[in-house]
Amino acid sequence: MDHEDIKKRTQETAKKLFGKGIKMDPPYLTWKAFDRDLANDLSMFITGNLYSRTVLTLPERQMVACAMLAALGARGELKLHVNAALNVGCDPKKLAEVFFQLATYAGMPAVNEALGVYREVLQERGQWPIQD
Predict the structure, then answer these.
(1) What are the tens digits of pLDDT across the range 15-74?
(2) CA 131/CA 93 separation, integer angstroms
(3) b/e map of 7-17 (b: 16 or more CB within 10 Å)?
Protein backbone atom coordinates (compact mmCIF):
# COMPACT_ATOMS: atom_id res chain seq x y z
CA MET A 1 0.00 0.00 0.00
CA ASP A 2 1.41 3.37 -0.95
CA HIS A 3 1.63 6.49 1.19
CA GLU A 4 -1.44 8.15 -0.34
CA ASP A 5 -3.59 5.06 0.28
CA ILE A 6 -2.53 4.94 3.92
CA LYS A 7 -3.14 8.67 4.28
CA LYS A 8 -6.66 8.28 2.86
CA ARG A 9 -7.39 5.29 5.10
CA THR A 10 -6.09 7.26 8.11
CA GLN A 11 -8.41 10.16 7.38
CA GLU A 12 -11.43 7.92 6.81
CA THR A 13 -10.85 5.93 10.00
CA ALA A 14 -10.15 9.05 12.07
CA LYS A 15 -13.38 10.62 10.83
CA LYS A 16 -15.38 7.54 11.91
CA LEU A 17 -13.72 7.45 15.32
CA PHE A 18 -13.31 11.10 16.20
CA GLY A 19 -15.57 12.99 13.80
CA LYS A 20 -18.31 13.94 16.23
CA GLY A 21 -19.27 14.43 19.84
CA ILE A 22 -15.90 15.02 21.45
CA LYS A 23 -15.52 18.02 23.74
CA MET A 24 -11.72 17.98 23.84
CA ASP A 25 -8.75 18.35 21.56
CA PRO A 26 -7.41 15.02 20.33
CA PRO A 27 -3.86 14.08 21.36
CA TYR A 28 -2.82 14.39 17.71
CA LEU A 29 -2.89 18.20 18.07
CA THR A 30 -0.42 18.02 20.96
CA TRP A 31 1.86 15.69 19.00
CA LYS A 32 1.68 18.01 16.00
CA ALA A 33 2.65 21.04 18.09
CA PHE A 34 5.94 19.31 18.91
CA ASP A 35 6.73 17.51 15.66
CA ARG A 36 4.39 17.67 12.67
CA ASP A 37 6.11 14.90 10.69
CA LEU A 38 6.25 12.49 13.62
CA ALA A 39 2.61 13.26 14.46
CA ASN A 40 1.63 12.35 10.91
CA ASP A 41 3.68 9.14 11.03
CA LEU A 42 2.14 8.12 14.37
CA SER A 43 -1.35 8.92 13.14
CA MET A 44 -0.89 6.93 9.96
CA PHE A 45 0.45 3.95 11.91
CA ILE A 46 -2.19 3.97 14.66
CA THR A 47 -5.26 5.06 12.72
CA GLY A 48 -4.33 4.18 9.16
CA ASN A 49 -2.69 0.81 9.74
CA LEU A 50 -3.74 -0.58 13.12
CA TYR A 51 -7.30 0.71 13.56
CA SER A 52 -8.23 0.03 9.95
CA ARG A 53 -7.37 -3.68 10.16
CA THR A 54 -10.42 -5.91 9.79
CA VAL A 55 -9.65 -8.79 12.17
CA LEU A 56 -11.52 -6.84 14.85
CA THR A 57 -14.32 -4.41 14.04
CA LEU A 58 -13.96 -0.77 15.03
CA PRO A 59 -16.47 -1.25 17.88
CA GLU A 60 -14.51 -4.26 19.14
CA ARG A 61 -11.23 -2.32 18.94
CA GLN A 62 -12.78 0.58 20.83
CA MET A 63 -14.10 -1.65 23.61
CA VAL A 64 -10.62 -3.18 23.99
CA ALA A 65 -9.03 0.29 23.99
CA CYS A 66 -11.52 1.55 26.58
CA ALA A 67 -10.89 -1.43 28.86
CA MET A 68 -7.12 -0.97 28.69
CA LEU A 69 -7.23 2.79 29.17
CA ALA A 70 -9.59 2.44 32.11
CA ALA A 71 -7.33 -0.17 33.72
CA LEU A 72 -4.38 2.18 33.24
CA GLY A 73 -6.29 5.12 34.72
CA ALA A 74 -5.66 7.17 31.56
CA ARG A 75 -8.65 9.48 32.02
CA GLY A 76 -8.03 11.83 29.07
CA GLU A 77 -7.40 9.07 26.56
CA LEU A 78 -10.35 7.13 27.97
CA LYS A 79 -12.65 10.09 27.37
CA LEU A 80 -11.46 10.31 23.77
CA HIS A 81 -11.95 6.58 23.17
CA VAL A 82 -15.32 6.33 24.94
CA ASN A 83 -16.54 9.00 22.55
CA ALA A 84 -15.00 7.13 19.61
CA ALA A 85 -16.62 3.89 20.79
CA LEU A 86 -20.02 5.53 20.72
CA ASN A 87 -19.26 7.09 17.33
CA VAL A 88 -18.64 3.69 15.76
CA GLY A 89 -21.71 2.06 17.26
CA CYS A 90 -20.65 0.40 20.50
CA ASP A 91 -23.70 -0.59 22.48
CA PRO A 92 -23.79 1.74 25.54
CA LYS A 93 -24.83 -1.10 27.86
CA LYS A 94 -22.00 -3.32 26.62
CA LEU A 95 -19.49 -0.51 27.14
CA ALA A 96 -20.73 -0.12 30.73
CA GLU A 97 -20.32 -3.88 31.17
CA VAL A 98 -16.72 -3.61 29.94
CA PHE A 99 -16.07 -1.12 32.74
CA PHE A 100 -17.71 -3.34 35.37
CA GLN A 101 -15.46 -6.20 34.19
CA LEU A 102 -12.49 -4.12 35.36
CA ALA A 103 -13.37 -4.90 38.98
CA THR A 104 -11.77 -8.32 38.75
CA TYR A 105 -8.53 -7.15 37.19
CA ALA A 106 -8.02 -3.49 38.08
CA GLY A 107 -10.22 -3.00 41.16
CA MET A 108 -13.24 -0.89 42.01
CA PRO A 109 -11.38 2.44 41.90
CA ALA A 110 -10.76 1.80 38.18
CA VAL A 111 -14.44 0.91 37.69
CA ASN A 112 -15.57 4.06 39.47
CA GLU A 113 -13.19 6.28 37.50
CA ALA A 114 -14.16 4.69 34.18
CA LEU A 115 -17.88 5.02 34.87
CA GLY A 116 -17.36 8.65 35.86
CA VAL A 117 -15.61 9.36 32.55
CA TYR A 118 -18.28 7.42 30.68
CA ARG A 119 -21.10 9.39 32.32
CA GLU A 120 -19.30 12.66 31.53
CA VAL A 121 -19.06 11.76 27.83
CA LEU A 122 -22.69 10.62 27.71
CA GLN A 123 -23.79 13.88 29.35
CA GLU A 124 -21.79 15.94 26.85
CA ARG A 125 -23.42 14.00 24.01
CA GLY A 126 -26.93 14.38 25.49
CA GLN A 127 -27.19 10.61 25.96
CA TRP A 128 -27.38 10.43 29.75
CA PRO A 129 -29.02 8.54 31.32
CA ILE A 130 -28.63 5.40 29.21
CA GLN A 131 -32.02 4.32 27.91
CA ASP A 132 -33.28 0.74 27.83
Answers:
(1) 999 988 877 888 889 999 999 999 999 999 999 999 999 999 999 999 999 999 999 999
(2) 9
(3) eebbeebbebb
Q: Please report, to the nearest 10 degrees, the dihedral formed by the alpha carbons of residues 79, 105, 88, 125 taken in order.
A: -40
Note the helical H segments in 35-74: 36-43, 58-72
Q: Name all domains of the chain by residue range, CATH numbers in brackets.
A: 3-124 (1.20.1290.10)
Distance, in Å, from the CA atom of 60 to the CA atom of 106, rounded to the nearest integer, reads: 20
Q: How many CB atoms lie within 10 A of CB 70?
A: 26
Decide if 106 contacts 70 (C-beta within 8 A): yes
| Other residues' Cβ atoms within 10 Å of the Cβ of residue 3 | 9
Q: Are 80 and 24 in contact (CB under 8 A)?
A: yes
> Is 0.70 topped by the overall pTM?
yes
Say how many C-beta atoms besides its own lie within 10 A of residue 85's C-beta: 28
